[in-house]
């Protein structure tokens, strides 16, 4: 492994989060973020997403939402960030913005990957029955993603 690689920082960050050392985990992800070039917005958004997930685990929903919004500022079509922010807003009662974000996630289908299938599946399960249109669109995107991956196998 290269001495300048961020891979150990990434795994150490999650190991710290799993040990409930959330602030230490955030420090490790912040170091990786600081070393990530602006020419890799998807990587920056991914790191901010993980920082938001750690904030959620730490019980800091406002900080998590801020991280997710930062990630969207870097990569406005990041499907997992759209889902995570959308579901967080749904839980807070911000239905209109949540629906817009979740519909956006369903529409960026070509960017979905295997990792995102789990996110989509979880999001569909977390969306209240009253938001049927959004739930249906996400379920449709999930079905299409699963079909594509089965064709690749």
Quickly list its features.
153 residues; mainly alpha; 8 helices; 77% helix; globular
By secondary-structure content and strand pairing, the structural class works out as mainly alpha
From the spread of the alpha carbons, the general shape counts as: globular
Order of helices and strands: HHHHHHHH
How many beta-strand runs?
0
Instruction: Report the major sheet.
Output: none
| Helical stretch tally | 8
Span of the ends, CA to CA: 30 Å
Quick check: average pLDDT? 81
Q: Helical proportion?
A: over 70%
Hey, roughly how much beta strand do the residues contain? Answer: under 5%
Low-confidence stretches: none
C-alpha-based Rg, rounded:
16 Å
Structural notes for this entry:
- By secondary structure, the chain is an all-alpha fold.
- Helices cover 77% and strands 0% of the residues.
- α1 runs antiparallel to α2 (22-35), α3 runs antiparallel to α4 (61-74) and α6 (95-107) packs parallel to α8 (132-152).
- The relative contact order is 0.09.
- The model has no long low-confidence stretch (mean pLDDT 81).
Q: Can you summarize this structure?
A:
This protein is an all-alpha fold and 153 residues long. It has helices at residues 7-18, 22-35, 41-57, 61-74, 79-92, 95-107, 114-126, 132-152.
Helices, strands, pairings?
Layout: H1 7-18, H2 22-35, H3 41-57, H4 61-74, H5 79-92, H6 95-107, H7 114-126, H8 132-152
Helix pairs in contact: 1-2, 2-3, 3-4, 4-5, 5-6, 5-7, 6-8, 7-8
């Amino acid at each position: 492994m290269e001495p300048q690689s961020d891979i150990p920082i990434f795994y150490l960050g999650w190991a710290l989060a799993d040990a409930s050392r959330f602030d230490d985990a955030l420090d490790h992800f912040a170091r990786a973020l600081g070393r990530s070039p602006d020419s890799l917005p998807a990587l920056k958004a991914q790191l901010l997403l993980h920082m938001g997930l750690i904030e959620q685990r730490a019980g800091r929903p406002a900080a998590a939402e801020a991280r997710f919004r930062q990630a969207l500022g870097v990569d406005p079509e990041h499907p997992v960030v759209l889902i995570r922010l959308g579901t967080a807003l749904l839980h807070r009662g911000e239905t209109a913005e949540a629906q817009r974000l979740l519909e956006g996630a369903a529409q960026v289908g070509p960017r979905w990957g295997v990792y995102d299938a789990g996110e989509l599946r979880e999001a569909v399960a977390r969306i209240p029955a009253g938001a049927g249109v959004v739930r249906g669109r996400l379920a449709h995107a999930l079905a299409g993603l699963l079909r594509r991956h089965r064709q690749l196998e």
